[in-house]
Amino acid sequence: MAYERACALAEVPTDRALAVTLGRYDVAVARDGEEVFAVEDVCSHAEIALSEGEVAVNDGGCQIECWLHGSMFDLRTGKPTNLPATEPVATFPVDVRDGDVYVDTETTLNGVTPA
């Protein structure tokens, strides 16, 4: 695993994602309290930046919305939770150290290859 610093934890809003570029990947970093997630920053349905949508926490889950068509993606699994998206987005390992967020874009947690 090769973790790269993505941002400071304080930069990640509680209701939106933060767009960061790590190497050749655009990543959306989001949080649910102290838990931090990193997903590929592109909707699998319409190639829209997921970081432009809202982050919603409900029923113990944390999701990010694609603002264009309303698809929601589970931040833990990358799976869409409603239509029109049917394909998952890549999810990446995250490590929070000393107030900074580190993401490993060389490894995916859900086996999805980033675009």
Automatic annotation (TrEMBL):
Keywords: 2Fe-2S, Iron, Iron-sulfur, Metal-binding. Gene3D superfamilies: Rieske [2Fe-2S] iron-sulphur domain. SUPFAM superfamilies: ISP domain. InterPro entries: Rieske_2Fe-2S (IPR017941), Rieske_2Fe-2S_sf (IPR036922). Residues 4-103 form the Rieske domain. It comes from the Bacteria. This is Non-heme iron oxygenase ferredoxin subunit.
